[in-house]
Amino acid sequence: MSRILIRNADVLVTMDTARRELSQADVLICDGVIAEVGQGLAATDARIVEARGCVVTPGLVNTHHHLYQTLTRAVPGGQDALLFGWLKTLYPIWSRFGPEEMFVSAQVGLAELALSGCTLTSDHLYLYTNGSRLEDTIHAASEIGLRFHPTRGAMSIGETQGGLPPDALVEPESAILNDMIRVVDAFHDPAPGAMVRVGLAPCSPFSVSRELMRDAALLARDKGVMLHTHLAENDEDIAYSLAKFGLRPGEYAQDLGWTGADVWHAHCVRLDGREIELFARTGTGVAHCPCSNCRLGSGIAPVRHMRDAGVKVGLGVDGSASNDAGNLMAEARQTVLLQRVSLGANAMSAREALEIATLGGAQVLGRDDCGRIAPGMRADLALWDVTGIEAAGAWDPVAALILCGPMRVRDLFVEGRQVVAGGQVVTIDLPRVIERQNALARRLWD
């Protein structure tokens, strides 16, 4: 039996039903599961991790990412464009990706997430160029050690058919559906504590047909997996939906079976009041991506209104070609700032943002075994050293995590396995991976 005792945390943020915050608290982990939470716990045969000077939180949860984009940060020509123009700049570059680009870029993106305190991440991969497959990212996550929810994305409507992507990047819909079946059967694990769960994720209403959206929903429910796509991201998105379908995005989603507790949509910047009420009533989740929304000029998502209505909201870093960082704690801080600049200084507290980043994300991804520090939950924990300069002078160490930092985790445990120790990823040779990533980026540039 593997046992770890994390002890003497200055503050333990449980996110349990009472939202307790415990002082000088301990957590006992047994075989990847939280066994006990309290003060003065004893375990003579356990490995001891000293947490004095630390705030301990549940691991953060990332509900939207495009890991392959970590290889195309700060690309000239796309730095100052809106969504559609940005995509048109990047599509030709992405068309040159192969399995190695997908794998290495995923490793770098996952390591960056881990260093920001993330233990569970989704990924939306909708490009399958030059032999790339979904398992390129699954293998990367296995090596890093993060809990992973990859989604089999797809694009099927190219430029000549009125879509946005080049024809060379789209796939036949029959092939898409067959590969969706393949990856779910091969990799999806529905069991509690699963390290990999696969979802189905046609890219967006402007890159796939109505038929594929509906067929993917039917297939997902037959297989018992979740559904994910982009929705209502900016004004262009709304205009396209009204012109093409005669419906707002939320109405279009409902018409095709894309609402429910097994569905979450990315962005949702331009949802109106009726769509918010629809999502709340149906249990549909939202991945809020504040930094990417700012970078692309998409607007401020109505997170306060969503939360007040009862919509499940989690955070997403989005792709590193549109963020361009992959730091979940930075997303939490940006969430607070945007809601306040939009609605006033009391629109959102630091603690609410931390809840969205942990428990909220777990709820969006349908993980009732993650997101809290309580007996029986999976041992996904982040230890934040608050003795450094970022939090120097902070009176409230929990609020300080969001308002001032640190934004880099000291230690990170996923399923009781240490992924980050002393601020360094310990599961892979990260400097070597970064060197290879930069070489691949130079090759794409050349």
Distance between the termini: 52 Å
Task: Tell me the strand percentage band.
Answer: 15-25%
pLDDT < 50 stretches: none
Task: Describe the sheet with the most strands.
Answer: 9 strands, mixed
Give me the secondary-structure category. Answer: alpha/beta
Oligomer: single chain
Q: What's the overall geometry?
A: globular
Number of separate strands: 17
Radius of gyration: 21 Å
Q: Which percent bin holds the helix content? A: 25-40%
Q: How much is the average pLDDT?
A: 95
DSSP summary: helix tally: 14
Q: Could you walk me through the main structural features you see in this protein, from its secondary elements to its overall organization?
A:
The protein has 14 helices and 17 strands. The chain is of the alpha/beta class. Strands 1, 2, 3, 4, 5, 14, 15, 16 and 17 form a nine-stranded mixed β-sheet that branches. Strands 6-7-8-9 form a four-stranded parallel β-sheet.
List the helices and strands and how they pair.
Elements: E1 3-13, E2 21-30, E3 33-38, E4 47-50, E5 54-58, E6 60-62, H1 83-94, H2 99-115, E7 118-125, H3 135-144, E8 147-154, H4 173-187, E9 199-202, H5 210-223, E10 227-231, H6 235-245, H7 249-255, E11 263-267, H8 273-282, E12 285-288, H9 290-295, H10 303-309, E13 312-315, H11 328-343, H12 350-364, E14 381-385, H13 397-403, E15 411-414, E16 417-421, E17 424-425, H14 430-445
Parallel strand pairs: 1-4, 1-5, 6-7, 7-8, 8-9, 10-11, 11-12, 12-13
Antiparallel strand pairs: 1-2, 2-3, 5-14, 14-15, 15-16, 16-17
